[in-house]
Each structure stands twice: as structure tokens, then as C-alpha cells.
UniProtKB/TrEMBL annotation, chain A:
Signal peptide region: none
Record InterPro entries: Ribosomal_mL67 (IPR024629)
Keywords: Mitochondrion, Ribonucleoprotein, Ribosomal protein, Transcription, Transcription regulation
Subcellular location: Mitochondrion
UniProt lineage: Eukaryota, Fungi, Dikarya, Ascomycota, Saccharomycotina
Protein name stated in the entry: Large ribosomal subunit protein mL67
From TrEMBL, chain B:
Recorded GO CC terms: mitochondrial large ribosomal subunit
Organism: Nadsonia fulvescens var. elongata DSM 6958
Keyword Transcription regulation in record: no
GO molecular function: structural constituent of ribosome
Lineage: Eukaryota, Fungi, Dikarya, Ascomycota, Saccharomycotina
PANTHER family reported for this sequence: LARGE RIBOSOMAL SUBUNIT PROTEIN UL29M, RIBOSOMAL PROTEIN L47, MITOCHONDRIAL-RELATED
Name by which UniProt lists this protein: Large ribosomal subunit protein uL29m
């Protein structure tokens, strides 16, 4: 029992460490958009979250804190990872908050509410998580559910770019006022990272434009003469 | 040079190479142990009770919007994923050979592709049945597939019959060619003047049926057409030859251009007479000699210029 508790504490600590360490300024200076990337493993169906375009071995260590035979720590080979979704937040601080939120949800699923999460998973005749080969579809489906609870928990307007329209599931799960859906452009599927880079660049430019507009508006309002009382 | 000096100020002489230093610096900067970047401030870090986990959300295929005219719909029957075996119960029987014999080539061609498309749909459905569903209900699909296969085999049979018939006809035509041509020639030349109009139509049919010669030359003039033109114009000239001065001056057509003018002449003695007059005018212009090798080229040029003339005249009229 003492060992188990120690393991849980260790896992929680790892999740704490996995949280975003970069400040919003880092992403602004790097010219990255306010994005959170969701990558899925083609072999196992597992999901990892990333703040940058591509998977990070450190993130894998910290996001798969309690590996077992049904949820092994996945390989960091870049060719088995595909971008499943890109969540676009209004600004960089909120994007960091969203990344942390997703890790919090992962922690709830893997450590705190593990029993509840396991109950919801589809089982095979042996009582284990349903699988075909090494593939367990439940992990990607859980990631979609986590995006839903993230949008509801944060309450920010969010735009999610999906690799497929079908993956987001039924429309009834989503709050239409908070979340907009779109597809990741598929014009150049061989250069999938360049597509993500373009998305990021576009999001950064949009964010910058909004800032400029705000700054101009405040300038104009400062220049306006005060009404003279007659 | 300056940049090297600047680097020397950063990396003292005697230390490791710049590339090694850079690599190790990058490695250290990325390692967890030495990562000294501070956690961002002024950002919500506590989420206690903010989030709740939800049951997994399964993907939904109906989110994908497919165009109505998507080409892959051709592999589906009325956009159905899988037809029930009852839907195939009244599919009918294969076409009989006797029915197919009455159809034109275009009809058979269309029917072939209709069958092929239907078989594509069936093979997709059969694949689904064999992989995911039980084999018990697939009898109707197999029967329909067999019927379609039979129809397609019968279409091939009918086309083969026609092909063999065509080849046999060509063979017998080669044997009887001289006889048929001789019979037509004697019939054509010995007929009365009163039958000129009728014979004109007969000649047209003859040249189309036995010589494959279309007077409009839609695909240009081939060497075979040159010989046919010579034969037809000779027939025409022999029938409408007279004792007029023009005819005596004319004698016989000297080259292919003259032969072609007679070929194109109206099917009457007046028409041939007019052609002879224009040939005499043509001879006055002292045209250069046309060798047998040049005949086809010359005729093609004439046909082209005439076609261009007709087009320009039609444009002027409109």
C-alpha cells in the first residue's frame, strides 16, 4: 500500500514537472502561434500533447507516468506519430493554460480517477481494454473527450483543426459557442509538418494583427479631444 | 576574419572545438537536469475541480460530407452501404444471345459497362459480407454476379460472332471482288440514260459499301482511296463520254488532279462536260507533272483547301 501511494505521488510529481515551462514570451519571440498540438501514435493509438510542432521525448516520459502492458510508454520515432488535432487559443498565455489543462486531465485519467476511466473503456472478452494488434482506439477517443472537457473547463473560445472530420465525434458533445471546428489543410500530406508550421505562422500573424488593432484603437481614443461643455 | 576573432573571445584558445562546444551546450540546455527555465508567471496553474473527465467520444462518420457526384459513389447502389438480399430478389435473368444479336455495337458497349459497374458494386458488397458478416445471406449476391458474368460472356460471344462474320465476308469478298466489280461495271455502263439519277445513287452506295470511300473524306485521303477514286472516275467518264469538241480535245485524264475533277463532277453528261471544260482551262495554266508518289499528297491538299473554302463561305453567309 505504501509502495502504491509512493508510486502515485511520483506520478503526480512527474505530471507537475511536465507542465509548461516556457513563458508566453518564448513562443511570441519564436513566432509560434498560440497552439496546442495533439499527436496520436499510429501503432498503439496513444496520444501525446505538445506545445511545439512535433513530439518531444521528454513529454513522452512525463505524460506516460504509469505505464503498464496496456499503456506502454510509446516510441519516440517521429514516423509513427501523426498530428490528430491542433487547438488554437486566443493568445499564448491561454495556450499554455490549455496545455497544462490537458495534462491535468491526463493526470485525472491515469492516476486520480483511474477506476472511473477504466470503467468507461470498451473491454474484450478477457476483461482487458479492447485491442487489435497493439492498437487501442480508446486512447484517441479519450483525447477527444479531454478536449471537450478542456473547452468547457477553460471557457475560452477555441478553434480546433482536425486531421479528419469524423474524429471529433457527435456534434452534441461540443459547445458550439466555445469551439469552432476546421480541418488541417491536406494539400501537401507528405509535408505534414510544413502544413502545421504554416498554420502556426497564420495564427501568430492573426494574433499580432489583433494586438495592432487594439493598440491603434487605444492610440486614437487617447488623441480624441475631450468634449467641451457648453 | 573578424568573426573568428570574436569567437576566440568567447571560446578561449586551447579549449575544445567550437562545434563540440555548441553540441554539448545544446544538449545541456535541453536536458531536464540543467533546464533552468522558470515556470511562467501570471498564468492559472491550479485546476482543482475545474475539469472533469468524460467518457471516450467515438468518431462519427456522418461528420464527413461527401459530394453527391463523388466518383466513388459508382461503387455503391443508390448510395447504400449494403443492399439487403431481398433487394436483389427481382434482379432478373441474364440477357439471351438471341436478344443480344439484335443490338448494335454501341448498345452492347453500354450494356457491358453497366454490367461491369454492377459487378464492381457486388464485389465490394461481397467483400464486406465475407469479412464482417456471415456467409449465409450472400447467395443472392453470388447469383446476381453469375448472371452478370454470363451476360458479359454472351456479349463477348456475339461480338466474336460478328468479328468472325466480318473476317469471313472480307475473305469471300477478296475471292469474288473481280466478279462483283465486273458485274457492277457492265450493269452501270449498259444502263439507259433515263436511269442516270438512280445510277448516281447506286454508284455512291457502291463506293461506300465495297470501296469504303466517303466523298467528304473526313479522315483525309489514303492510298487505297486514290485507287478507288481512279476506278470511280473511270466508270463515270466512260459512261458520259461524248463526241463533242471539248471531249475530243480532252482525250483522257492525264493526272490525279484531273481524275479527281471528274470524280467530283455531277452525275450527268452535263456535269462531266463542265468538268472537262474546267480541266481544259486547267491544262492551259501548264501545271507541273504529278508523279504517282505525289498523288496522295496532292489529293489531301485539294481536299483541305476545298474544306477551308466551304468553312469561309459558311462564315460569310452567317
Amino acid at each position: 500500500m505504501a509502495n502504491k501511494n509512493r508510486n502515485i505521488r511520483k506520478a503526480v510529481k512527474l505530471f507537475q514537472e511536465a507542465r509548461a515551462r516556457r513563458s508566453p514570451d518564448f513562443f511570441r519571440k519564436a513566432g509560434l502561434g498560440p497552439h496546442v498540438y495533439v499527436f496520436r501514435n499510429l501503432e498503439t493509438g496513444q496520444v501525446t500533447y505538445s506545445q511545439t510542432i512535433g513530439i518531444n521525448p521528454q513529454n513522452l516520459t512525463k505524460q506516460f507516468t504509469r505505464p503498464d502492458w496496456q499503456n506502454r510508454k510509446p516510441s519516440d520515432r517521429i514516423d509513427v506519430w501523426r498530428c490528430m488535432a491542433v487547438a488554437e487559443l486566443p493568445d499564448h498565455a491561454k495556450a499554455i493554460e490549455a496545455f497544462d489543462g490537458l495534462l491535468e486531465l491526463r493526470k485525472l485519467r491515469d492516476v486520480i480517477d483511474k477506476k472511473q476511466a477504466m470503467e468507461w473503456r470498451v473491454k474484450n472478452s478477457d476483461g482487458n481494454i479492447w485491442f487489435s494488434g497493439n492498437y487501442r482506439p480508446t486512447y484517441t477517443q479519450e483525447a477527444v473527450a479531454d478536449l471537450v472537457s478542456l473547452s468547457e473547463g477553460l471557457g475560452y473560445n477555441m478553434k480546433i483543426y482536425w486531421e479528419d472530420a469524423w474524429r471529433r465525434g457527435d456534434e452534441t458533445h461540443w459547445n458550439k459557442d466555445l469551439v469552432q471546428h476546421d480541418l488541417i489543410p491536406t494539400s501537401a500530406p507528405r509535408e505534414r509538418y510544413s502544413v502545421l508550421r504554416e498554420l502556426s505562422e497564420k495564427a501568430f500573424n492573426d494574433w499580432k494583427q489583433k494586438l495592432d488593432v487594439k493598440a491603434k484603437a487605444s492610440e486614437i481614443s487617447a488623441q480624441e479631444p475631450t468634449p467641451v461643455s457648453q | 576574419m573578424n568573426s573568428v576573432k570574436q569567437l576566440r573571445t568567447i571560446i578561449p584558445r586551447g579549449s575544445r572545438g567550437f562545434h563540440q562546444t555548441l553540441a554539448s551546450t545544446a544538449r545541456l540546455a535541453n536536458s531536464t537536469k540543467n533546464n533552468k527555465t522558470k515556470a511562467p508567471k501570471n498564468i492559472e496553474r491550479e485546476f482543482s475541480g475545474k475539469f472533469k473527465i468524460l467518457p471516450p467520444i467515438a468518431p462519427k462518420a456522418s461528420n464527413i460530407k461527401v459530394k453527391d457526384d463523388h466518383p466513388l459513389w459508382q461503387f455503391f447502389s443508390h448510395k447504400k452501404f449494403l443492399r439487403a438480399p431481398e433487394d436483389l430478389a427481382n434482379a432478373g435473368r441474364p440477357w439471351a444471345v438471341s436478344e443480344l444479336r439484335r443490338k448494335s455495337f454501341d448498345d452492347l458497349h453500354t450494356l457491358w459497362y453497366v454490367c461491369l459497374k454492377e459487378r464492381n458494386i457486388l464485389s465490394r458488397e461481397d467483400h464486406l459480407l465475407s469479412n464482417y458478416l456471415s456467409d449465409t445471406g450472400s447467395f443472392a449476391y453470388k447469383r446476381l454476379n453469375e448472371n452478370l458474368h454470363e451476360t458479359m460472356q454472351r456479349i463477348r460471344h456475339v461480338l466474336a460472332e460478328r468479328h468472325h462474320a466480318h473476317e469471313a465476308a472480307l475473305e469471300s469478298f477478296e475471292e469474288q471482288k473481280n466478279q462483283i466489280f465486273g458485274q457492277f461495271k457492265s450493269r452501270y455502263l449498259e444502263a439507259d440514260e433515263s436511269r442516270d439519277e438512280d445510277l448516281g445513287l447506286q454508284l455512291e452506295r457502291f463506293q461506300l459499301a465495297y470501296l469504303g470511300l466517303n466523298s467528304k473524306f473526313p479522315h483525309g485521303v489514303s492510298q487505297k482511296d486514290v485507287n478507288s477514286i481512279k476506278f470511280i472516275s473511270e466508270l463515270k467518264f466512260t459512261r458520259f463520254k461524248s463526241d463533242t469538241d471539248n471531249m475530243k480535245a480532252f482525250g483522257q485524264p492525264k493526272d490525279i488532279a484531273e481524275t479527281f475533277m471528274i470524280f467530283q463532277a455531277h452525275h450527268s453528261d452535263k456535269g462531266v462536260e463542265e468538268a472537262v471544260v474546267s480541266i481544259l482551262e486547267y491544262r492551259e495554266s501548264a501545271p507541273s507533272e504529278i508523279t504517282p508518289e505525289q498523288e496522295q499528297i496532292v489529293l489531301n491538299n485539294i481536299v483541305k483547301t476545298e474544306r477551308a473554302k466551304q468553312v469561309s463561305e459558311a462564315e460569310e453567309q452567317s
